[in-house]
């Protein structure tokens, strides 16, 4: 075994320690067994975060030079879409480390592409054999030909080969969207919004979900403020329910958790940060059935063994949910009885009283949710928080109702909470929240 092979465990430890959850692929001469004593170790590292690819060319392990090409998943996906024919070494590299399956997923995509075009595989094999011969003759180093009778010392073999690949591919070959076969992928959303940023965010989410879940993804349904045309960017959540066939395995769960990290950084916009919801097996649409699901929550991700959405949320999804992709499975959710929902809502007053602090802008939600629950309890009507604020101002009984217009305004413009006067107003909310919770408790008792 060569010294390059000997130090691979140390190299993997070095790269993975700095990039938890990454996938590491070996390529080049060490993979194929024709390394020389001075050969480098060439690696691809697929990482979860970042918006551009980059190289670490200065790694030395055990006297061996290591070159690492880092591919964050978002630019990797885009590059595979644009020029999949350039990813032969990636597709057929040796997988050294991939605990979350992130590298394997994109390797399979690239291999699917090449499997449809064996002539491209032959072109690549021929070129790599030429590189091997040049390397063994000493006329090649780090992508450059060494000077010879007809060699330009500044010429890289990849430049000409990339152009040759483009000619072989031609205009009739698929680009990105056809990795995996078929015609070019149409827009995924089957139901769109007037908000272009919202459509773009949902399209990104669907592509990620389909890449991980494949044919197991049954339906994606939106619920919450977005279906009431009451989305508050930067304040609340963009709520979804992704329905899948079968329980989620540990591997798929890990992939979904890793896929969320880049979305929460803000690089994909505020709405991507707001995505929250459940990946729920179809059978678990019935809360009586247990299984393995995943929750993307505000405070992180959690594995569920039972449906924890609650009867009120399930009622909203069944009655007002908006299917943006796949089958309409809303009626597979058991119809919630009014007594079931009321029993569940009895927890709200105690929770509000326990957690009401009035120390940040999100505390206005206790007032808005109180108004929303009162509207449903008295009139049986599902509503947005903004609509409930307007209704509550005129129909609630306590003095707390007078604060609803400002609560509604702050929800839509949370940045205003930085003002000193608003901070003082928020600091005094504990009493009104207690009063609102008491009114809801009284209404529940009367049911």
Topology:
Blueprint: H1 3-6, H2 8-18, E1 23-27, H3 29-32, E2 41-47, E3 54-61, E4 64-72, H4 73-82, H5 88-91, E5 94-97, H6 102-115, H7 118-137, E6 140-141, E7 144-145, H8 157-169, H9 196-213, E8 217-223, E9 238-244, H10 250-264, H11 270-273, E10 275-281, E11 293-297, E12 300-304, H12 311-320, E13 322-326, H13 338-345, H14 347-355, H15 364-379, H16 385-395, H17 404-412, H18 420-427, H19 430-446
Parallel strand pairs: 2-4, 9-10
Antiparallel strand pairs: 1-2, 1-5, 3-4, 6-7, 8-9, 8-13, 10-11, 11-12
Helix pairs in contact: 4-6, 7-8, 9-10, 14-19, 15-16, 15-17, 15-19, 16-17
Structural write-up:
With 447 residues, the chain is of the alpha+beta class. The chain folds into three domains: 3-169, Beta Polymerase, domain 2 (2-Layer Sandwich); 196-336, Beta Polymerase, domain 2; 339-446, no CATH class. 46% of the residues lie in helices and 16% in strands. It is built from 19 helices and 13 strands. The strands form three sheets. A six-stranded mixed sheet has the order 12-11-10-9-8-13, sandwiched between helices.
How many strand units? 13
Radius of gyration: 28 Å
- What is the class of the largest domain in the CATH system? Alpha Beta
Which outline best applies? elongated
Which percent range fits the helix content?
40-55%
CATH superfamily of the largest domain: Beta Polymerase, domain 2
Low-confidence stretches: 142-156, 171-185
> What characterizes the major β-sheet?
6 strands, mixed
| CATH topological fold name of the largest domain | Beta Polymerase, domain 2
Terminal-residue CA separation: 78 Å
Mean pLDDT, as a whole number?
86
Structural class: alpha+beta
Beta-strand level of the residues, as a percent range? Answer: 15-25%
Distinct helical segment count:
19
Number of domains: 3
Biggest sheet strand line-up: 12-11-10-9-8-13
CATH architecture of the largest domain: 2-Layer Sandwich
